[in-house]
Amino acid sequence: MKRFRGLILGAAVAAALAGPAAAQAVGSVVQGVTVVDGPIYVTTYAEVVPSAVPAALAALKAYRDASRKEPGAAAIDIYQEEGQTYRFVVNERWQNRGAVAAHENAAAYKTLAGALKPIQLGPLDARIHQAHSVTPPKAPAPG
Fold it and tell me: Can you tell me the distance from the alpha carbon of 28 to that of 117, in angstroms, rounded to the nearest whole number?
């Protein structure tokens, strides 16, 4: 039993020392999920004051256009909820984790966050996924 406790303690110490570097390794397992360095999907939800919809839409379109020019951007689309037009979803597809990390520090994201801050009803809610859909993506509709 002492040997088993020592083994568990040693594994815990090794995991703690490995830290974030182990989480980024291709094919590693973090909390039961295999980390893959392939396409990364980011879905961001935004909700603004209803009277500020035109300003929010302009900021989101500027963000989309600037982000599409960044290295690693595969697709970035904006959706507006029907019936509650002050609610938006931004779906993004990036080539890999490195592209997402670089994007988080880029001017486009910081500008969007600054533009929405005074008119948002709550903070931006960004969710990152390794696999988001099993169907091939479609070309976005114009506009």
Answer: 36
What residues form DSSP beta bridges with 94? 40, 73
- pTM of the predicted model as reported, rounded to 2 decimal places: 0.69
Residue 96 · residue 38 · CB < 8 Å? yes
For residue 31, give Cα distances in angstroms to 11, 28, 35. Answer: 14, 10, 10
Q: What is the pLDDT of residues 75-104, one digit of tens each?
A: 999 999 999 999 999 999 999 989 999 998
Helices 107-116 and 53-68: crossing angle, nearest 10°?
180
φ and ψ at 133, to 5 degrees? -155, 150
CB 137 within 8 Å of CB 94: no
Give phi and psi for 104, each to the nearest 5: -60, -25
